[in-house]
């Protein structure tokens, strides 16, 4: 593949090593979508291969095929050159493939030790589970990772996300997997924890394991990876050795265009303050949040996943009760006890979990749009379908929704179009403040542009927008000001003028200027 | 992921309200299947017994389902919203016991009816409070109140019996509104029309479907999910209270074992009527048809001298088959599609 | 931390001991061994059934057909005993066990292969099994005088001071304890209930695990069917009518979460014993046995409120000091 020696201390020269895992010609389609199109990929022992691509590029589908959840429509998978088939997650695990996911898929109610050993528990001579060996093994593997502070007897649900991740890694180590897939493992980790994780990855490498590393963060990719593969729209658009390939080139492969074009510049002409939040705090999630939001402004909230941004928004939306602090909307103090209160006051929320919290799958588009506005479309509680259709059409067409009819189940729409339905639903209520939580997560570039375009129109009409986003280009391309959060606290509020990406990332990751 | 809409025309497109006519869908609906089953049983019954096709025996047969079916109407709404109430039969027992107790003190018919319905409403509110305010699973809560409500009846009555209801109280369960149309049947038909309207034509009904399909997204859309569920528990309690008035009036006596096991029959009726036990889908028409089917079957087998308990084999099988068939069909169709692809 | 884990069972035990002690203030003989052995004997069948139900509930399912299964399996062996009086009793117990397992496996197949919600499946089979009793017995009862003496004697037989019926329960508790804590099958019941998706990842076939759970509850119901019929020496359609909910009540009181994944053998046993103590204590303290139903209803509600407080889900715990405080 390449004849350039690397500066990494991978065992022997990479060229001499045969790939551990080979994918050839893998394709996978879903109704209406070609998620993977004739994709090939190699994973080498003792090396980290970074899988790079935008959301929707086909990375998750690939991971699901590798872990046996999806079966490919075409193509073949080989381990050590021998073709294998992953009929089920269990088969994939037996072939030595393990995955560590963004949201750890482990078992909350049982102990750390059992989580590490479930499915491959050591037995006594009588064939019974050997709890002593399980606890001992767990203690040993955790200690070897430098995670001795996690007691094997603790129930998993008592742990923080970072520690749950460590348990996931411990499990991968203990089942002696040959291929470890890490799907955005650093998303919820602090800077220090990321450093610890990378030490672990070096351990895995030295052990000869093949690692597939998925991340959106280029600094991490360059720090840990030996190779890369870039995906776009279900196809592999490039691969090679890492330190030699400049970042700009990879970014170009990823988006297929230069980043600036994506964001419609809107002219900020902020008016008077609409929302003023002071010292908003929660016992376990966030502390001392202060900010002001002005009419005609997009206020970005940036931070790592798990920094507490969504939690702040959910308190504003009445989903959780803050322990202290005040929310003042249009000069009036409000204490929303439920989303219904927040909506009545004029605060609406487009949640991150679109399928679970945004749209009601199973109901048609028009019923989704009219749901919060039923009081207006009905007469004395009696439905008036015509009013509902009119309302739904007015707002969905403004957002350029692609659907064959308004009676179509919203579940049959693409993610981007579902997001348009959610936004239409809220615009129909005539809100003052609209909160968008990761508004373009997992949607295609076309819909993304439509959502961004529309955000610009909203503020132009005098609406105030809060946008929570973990995507750096989006935050920098769309926001007027940016609030940076870390570990439940506000780090700083920055004017989005001549702001460097490095400054933003360092603030979010908690790095002092000079060590960045 | 997996969405790749093309960025074509920049002009907003017109989106139609609906595609095609809903007639075809309606012809193949669950309700049509139930109607066919009902007609088949009706025809079979009329062949099986010469006494069946008689206005009075047809009227008689309605008595064996109207009380349960009244509860099933409210239960359908509750199950569509994603909850369940197993305590309905026990609510009947408690309502009936309180009515009997009041009758001992000479309370008149209007007072008795008020006590019966009021008790039902309070029991429903109690269930609703435990489920929506304390956030407990309704299946466990109502297994608990099922024991509690009937338990209170046992405490009050022991192995005794309340009799001596005023003569005018007998009208609700024994009276006729017009010719062979009993008060019970008339009430049920009126209630069915009302519930149909409530579920399918009002914003309240729309919210029930939204909650049942996805209560989180419903809450995130600004619906007061807890309040609506609370109201549905109250409604179910209220209907149980009404059923208690009818049943007590029909029997003319109260024992603590009254309406034993009805909760399962009511739920069977609802599920048979096409309501998804997991919530989110269903309709009143199906429930009404299912009520008639169960009534016709009980009555028909009775004409053939088949005991009621054997009839339960048919009900149970019908329940499972009716749920399993669409699943099998869908699977078969998918397999064929896969082979063609 | 360990104490916290044990809390629920500990408190339930404390409540039971406290109740026994209170009753013994009025009637000192209540706390003596013969009386306690008698309570255990009375509760033995419920203990076994609660253990079977627990396994099903752990996998996010429910078995409403256990009592009907018990009655049908009991009727089958009763009729077998009448027809072939020479058949040895162990064979009959085996037949009851196999027949119960068969009935349970029907539930399991419908849940596993057709994906029908367990509550619907077992609601259906509950009515079918009850109806079948009537059919196979031709609508008549099997009375004490038709059964052989050996058939009736086994549960009452004395073995080392306690009855064989009690021994059945003790052995069942032991077997379930080993199953649930020391075998991978037992652990997979938990894993399936806690997180079915993750269970699939670690190689557990969720559907098959549910199927096995229903077979286990069926097996227990079958054995309990023989014991029940033999102990009360009569078999008819309505044997153990409504008992399915008492079984679930025992589980709920014992801290088994209806949402799956949470529950222990000790909890289920204590939940059943609680109901047994209440049953036996009421006459002793001169309270009408008619109070029993209301008390168990109240106990279910209190237990579920108590459990919900313990299991309350917390957020992500982002603030550092909050994690240490937790």
Briefly say what this structure is.
Chain A has 18 helices and 20 strands. Chain A has 516 residues and is an alpha/beta fold. Chain A has 4 domains: 167 residues, P-loop containing nucleotide triphosphate hydrolases (Rossmann fold); 72 residues, no CATH class; 171 residues, Rossmann fold, CATH 3.40.50; 70 residues, no CATH class.
List the helices and strands and how they pair.
The complex is a heterotrimer of chains A (516), B (341) and C (326).
Chain A: E1 21-30, E2 33-43, E3 48-53, H1 59-66, E4 74-79, E5 82-84, H2 89-94, E6 97-100, H3 112-117, H4 131-144, H5 161-174, E7 179-183, H6 191-206, E8 210-214, H7 218-224, E9 227-232, E10 235-241, H8 247-255, E11 273-281, E12 289-294, E13 298-302, H9 309-316, E14 324-329, E15 332-334, H10 339-345, E16 347-350, H11 354-358, H12 365-370, H13 374-377, H14 385-398, H15 415-427, E17 433-437, H16 445-460, E18 464-468, H17 472-478, E19 481-486, E20 489-495, H18 501-509
Parallel strand pairs in A: 3-8, 3-9, 6-7, 7-8, 13-18, 13-19, 16-17, 17-18
Antiparallel strand pairs in A: 1-2, 1-4, 4-5, 9-10, 11-12, 11-14, 14-15, 19-20
Helix pairs in contact in A: 4-5, 5-6, 14-15, 15-16
Chain B: H1 23-27, H2 30-48, H3 55-62, H4 66-80, H5 88-104, H6 109-133, H7 138-157, H8 171-174, E1 176-178, E2 181-182, H9 183-201, H10 203-213, H11 215-220, H12 225-251, H13 262-272, H14 284-303, H15 308-340
Helix pairs in contact in B: 2-14, 4-9, 4-10, 4-12, 4-13, 4-14, 5-6, 5-7, 5-12, 6-7, 6-12, 9-10, 13-14
Chain C: H1 2-26, H2 33-58, H3 66-83, H4 89-114, H5 118-136, H6 149-156, E1 158-159, E2 162-163, H7 164-182, H8 184-194, H9 196-201, H10 206-232, H11 243-253, H12 265-284, H13 292-311, H14 320-325
Antiparallel strand pairs in C: 1-2
Helix pairs in contact in C: 1-12, 2-7, 2-8, 2-10, 2-11, 2-12, 3-4, 3-5, 3-10, 4-5, 4-10, 6-10, 7-8, 8-10, 11-12, 11-13
Could you characterize what this model shows?
The complex is a heterotrimer of chains A (516), B (341) and C (326). Chain A is α/β, with parallel strands linked by helices and 516 residues long. Chain A is 33% helix and 23% strand. Chain A contains 18 helices and 20 strands. Chain A has a 6-stranded mixed sheet with strand order 6-7-8-3-9-10, sandwiched between helices. In chain A, strand 7, helix 6 (191-206) and strand 8 form a beta-alpha-beta unit. Chain A starts with 20 loop residues before the first strand and ends in a 7-residue tail after the last helix. Chain B has a single domain, classed as Orthogonal Bundle (ABC transporter involved in vitamin B12 uptake, BtuC). Chain B contains 15 helices and 2 strands. In chain B, helix 5 (88-104) runs parallel beside helix 7 (138-157) and helix 13 (262-272) packs across helix 14. The longest helix of chain B has 33 residues, at 308-340. Chain B is globular. With 326 residues, chain C is mainly α. Chain C has a single domain (33-309), classed as ABC transporter involved in vitamin B12 uptake, BtuC. Chain C has a two-stranded antiparallel sheet with strand order 1-2. The radius of gyration of chain C is 21 Å and the shape is globular. The N and C termini of chain C lie close together (11 Å). Chains in contact: A-B, A-C, B-C. The interface between A and B is large, with 69 and 37 residues.
């Amino acid at each position: 593949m390449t004849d350039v020696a690397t500066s990494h201390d991978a065992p022997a020269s990479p060229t001499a090593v045969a790939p551990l895992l080979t994918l050839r010609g893998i394709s996978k389609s879903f109704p209406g979508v070609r998620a993977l199109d004739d994709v090939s990929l190699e994973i080498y022992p003792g090396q980290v291969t970074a899988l790079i691509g935008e959301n929707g590029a086909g990375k998750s589908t690939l991971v699901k095929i590798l872990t046996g959840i999806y079966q490919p429509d075409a193509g073949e998978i080989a381990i050590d050159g021998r073709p294998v088939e992953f009929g089920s997650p269990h088969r994939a695990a037996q072939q030595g493939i393990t995955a560590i996911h963004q949201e750890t898929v482990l078992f909350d109610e049982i102990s750390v030790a059992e989580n590490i050993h479930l499915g491959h528990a050591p037995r006594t001579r009588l064939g019974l589970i050997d709890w002593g060996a399980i606890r001992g093994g767990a203690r040993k593997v955790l200690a070897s990772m430098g995670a001795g502070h996690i007691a094997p007897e603790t129930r998993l649900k008592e742990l923080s996300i970072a520690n749950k991740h460590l348990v996931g890694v411990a499990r991968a180590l203990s089942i002696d997997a040959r291929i470890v897939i890490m799907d955005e493992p650093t998303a919820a980790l602090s800077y220090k924890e990321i450093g610890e994780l990378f030490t672990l990855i070096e351990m895995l490498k030295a052990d000869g394991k093949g690692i597939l590393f998925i991340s959106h963060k280029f600094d991490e990719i360059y720090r840990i990876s030996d190779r890369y593969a870039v995906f776009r729209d279900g196809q592999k658009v490039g691969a090679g050795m890492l330190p030699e390939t400049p970042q700009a080139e990879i970014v170009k492969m990823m988006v297929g265009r230069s980043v600036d074009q994506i964001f419609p510049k809107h002219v900020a002409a902020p008016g008077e303050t609409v929302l003023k939040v002071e010292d908003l705090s929660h016992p376990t999630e966030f502390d001392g949040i202060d900010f002001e939001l002005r009419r005609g402004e997009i206020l970005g909230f940036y931070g790592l996943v798990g920094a507490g941004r969504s939690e702040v928004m959910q308190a504003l939306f009445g989903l959780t009760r803050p322990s202290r602090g005040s929310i003042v909307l249009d000069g009036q103090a409000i204490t929303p006890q439920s989303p219904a209160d927040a909506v009545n006051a004029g605060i609406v929320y487009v949640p991150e979990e679109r399928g679970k919290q945004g749209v009601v799958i199973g109901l048609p588009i028009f019923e989704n749009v009219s749901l919060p506005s039923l009081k207006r479309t009905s007469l004395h509680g009696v439905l008036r379908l015509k009013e509902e259709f009119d309302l739904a059409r007015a707002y969905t067409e403004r957002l350029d929704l692609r659907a064959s009819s308004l009676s179509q189940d919203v579940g049959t729409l693409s993610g981007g179009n579902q997001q348009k339905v959610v936004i239409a639903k809220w615009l129909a209520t005539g809100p003052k403040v609209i909160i968008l939580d990761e508004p373009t997560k997992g949607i295609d570039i076309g819909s993304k542009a439509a959502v961004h375009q529309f955000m610009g129109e909203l503020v132009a009409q005098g609406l105030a927008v809060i946008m929570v986003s973990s995507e750096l280009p989006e935050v920098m391309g769309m926001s007027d000001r940016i609030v940076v959060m870390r570990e439940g606290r506000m780090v700083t509020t920055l004017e989005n003028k001549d702001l460097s990406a490095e400054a933003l990332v360092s603030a979010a990751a908690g790095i002092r200027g000079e060590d960045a | 992921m997996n969405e790749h809409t093309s960025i074509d025309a920049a002009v907003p497109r017109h989106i139609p309200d609906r595609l095609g006519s809903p007639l075809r869908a309606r012809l193949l609906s669950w309700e049509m299947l139930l109607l066919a089953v009902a007609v088949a049983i009706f025809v079979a019954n009329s062949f099986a017994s010469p006494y069946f096709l008689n206005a009075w025996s047809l009227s008689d047969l309605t008595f064996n389902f109207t009380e349960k079916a009244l509860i099933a109407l409210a239960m359908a709404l509750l199950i569509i919203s994603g909850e369940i109430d197993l305590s309905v039969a026990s609510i009947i027992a408690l309502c009936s016991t309180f009515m009997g107790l009041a009758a001992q003190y000479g309370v008149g018919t209007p007072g008795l009816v008020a006590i019966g319905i009021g008790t039902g409403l309070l029991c429903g509110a109690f269930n609703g409070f435990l489920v929506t305010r304390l956030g407990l699973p309704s299946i466990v809560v109502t297994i608990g109140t099922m024991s509690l409500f009937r338990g209170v009846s046992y405490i009050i009555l022991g192995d005794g019996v309340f009799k001596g209801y005023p003569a005018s109280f007998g009208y609700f369960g024994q009276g006729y509104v017009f010719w062979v149309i009993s008060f019970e049947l008339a009430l049920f038909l009126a209630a069915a029309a009302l519930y149909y309207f409530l579920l399918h034509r009002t914003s309240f009904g729309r919210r029930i479907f939204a909650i049942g399909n996805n209560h989180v997204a419903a809450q995130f859309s600004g619906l007061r999910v807890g309040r609506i569920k609370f109201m549905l528990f109250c409604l179910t309690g209220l209907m149980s209270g009404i059923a208690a008035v009818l049943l007590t009036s029909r029997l003319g006596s109260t024992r603590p074992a009254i309406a034993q096991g009805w909760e399962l029959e009511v739920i069977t009726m609802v599920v048979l009527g096409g309501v998804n036990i997991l919530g989110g889908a269903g309709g009143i028409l199906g429930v009404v048809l299912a009520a008639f089917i169960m009534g016709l079957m009980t009555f028909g087998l009775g004409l053939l001298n088949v005991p009621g308990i054997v009839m339960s084999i048919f009900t149970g099988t019908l329940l499972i088959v009716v749920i399993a068939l669409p699943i099998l069909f869908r699977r078969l169709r998918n397999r064929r599609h896969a082979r063609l692809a | 931390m360990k104490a916290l884990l044990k809390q629920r069972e500990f408190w339930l035990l404390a409540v039971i001991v406290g109740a026994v002690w209170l009753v013994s203030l009025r009637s000192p003989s209540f706390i003596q061994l013969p009386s306690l052995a008698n309570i255990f004997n009375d509760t033995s069948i419920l203990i076994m059934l609660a253990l079977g139900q627990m396994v099903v509930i752990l996998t996010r399912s429910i078995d409403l057909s256990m009592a009907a299964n018990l009655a049908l399996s009991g009727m089958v062996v009763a009729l077998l005993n009448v027809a072939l009086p020479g058949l040895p009793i162990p064979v009959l117990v085996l037949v009851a066990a196999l027949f119960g397992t068969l009935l349970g496996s029907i539930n399991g197949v419908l849940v596993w292969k057709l994906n029908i919600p367990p509550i619907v499946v077992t609601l259906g089979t509950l009515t079918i099994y009850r109806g079948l009793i009537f059919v196979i017995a031709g609508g008549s009862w099997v009375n004490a005088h038709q059964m052989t003496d050996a058939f009736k004697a086994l549960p009452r037989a004395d073995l080392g001071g306690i009855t064989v019926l009690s021994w059945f329960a003790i052995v069942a508790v032991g077997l379930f304890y080993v199953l649930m804590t020391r075998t991978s099958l037992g652990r997979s019941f938990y894993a399936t209930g806690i997180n079915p998706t993750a269970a699939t990842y670690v190689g557990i076939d969720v559907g098959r695990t549910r199927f096995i759970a229903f077979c286990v509850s069926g097996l227990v119901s079958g054995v309990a069917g023989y014991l029940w019929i033999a102990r009360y020496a009569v078999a008819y359609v309505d044997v153990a009518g409504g008992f399915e909910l008492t079984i679930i009540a025992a589980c709920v009181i014992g801290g088994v979460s209806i949402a799956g994944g949470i529950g222990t053998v000790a909890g289920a046993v204590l939940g059943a014993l609680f109901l047994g103590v209440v049953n036996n204590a009421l006459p002793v303290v001169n309270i009408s046995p008619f109070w029993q139903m209301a008390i168990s209803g109240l106990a279910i509600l209190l237990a579920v409120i108590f459990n919900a407080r313990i299991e309350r889900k917390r957020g992500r715990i982002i603030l550092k000091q909050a994690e240490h405080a937790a």
